[in-house]
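We treat protein structure as text, and this decision shapes the records that our systems exchange. This encoding replaces a full spatial description with a residue-level series of whole-number codes. Below, we set out a record of this kind in full and without editing:
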Amino acid sequence: MELDVGDVGQAVSTGTLPGWDRVEELVAAAWHRNRDLRAGEVADYIPILAEVDPELFGVCVAEVDGGIHLAGDADHPFSIQSISKAFVYALVCDAVGHQVVLDRVGVDNTGLPFNSVMAVELNDGHPRNPMVNAGALATTALVPGATPAAKWTFIQDGLARFAGRPLPLDEQVYASEAATNQRNRAIARLLESYGRIDTDPLAVVDVYTRQCALLVSARDLAVMGATLADGGVNPVTGERVVAASVCQDTLAVLAASGLYERSGEWLYEIGVPGKSGVAGGIVTVAPGKAGIGTFSPRLDGAGNSVRGQRATAYLSRALGLNVFASDVRTPDGRSST
């Protein structure tokens, strides 16, 4: 997908964000230039998601110093869906350790759709990475807790700490997904047969379904992203949520697989780790700088928000977030441009 960012120019990743007023201006511009875009379709394989207003569109940037910049429907609630995978993965890595999760789940892109059964079979039962459904189920199975209720409490509390506020469960979304998640149940059973899930697989699916039905906003996603950007410390509450090393692991996985089979294109065009969800959210993390949250329900063929991708591409370029961009320095240390 071509991501038109206009004539904003190319800032670079090294350095800091522009001043407050400039960030405000650019967030507003990212929203304004994409608000009339009508490409894409809302998700319909989960019945309740098909009922969302496709015109909703919000953008938020949360700086690591706690500054918040909003445009459009940035406070409109929606279900977090697959974006939860990134933060549950971080919580699990923090709780059980880098190597345990690496061995059980993996970090490599499958190159196949997020709900692929073939990807599991082709890799002898290995989920490959935690951002596809098989890997997310294997990750949720590792959540600490002696019972499904204890695991759910760990997840809901942990994601609330990332967001800096309690995140309620959308009971309607949960019920709709629980009635239509036969494929996830099949994947969980398959993982159990390969020894990748060693607890009740259907209980794991239920906890995973609940985590996907937590309500967030673009503002929440930006704060959650900024927590990863700031080495695991929530920039609004000041609370340490996970270790800095966990953030490094999580961002590496997001860079490789956060946008499913479009992850390479995302990294090539936008240059910062991100994660999408089928309700229309995208979280993006610029290490040491900020988190970006966007929300727009119209999705491309891979399940990624069309407006969200374009708004994020604009902000990445305008704010100098691309982690692969640098500039030539003159002998006196100043930029050559």
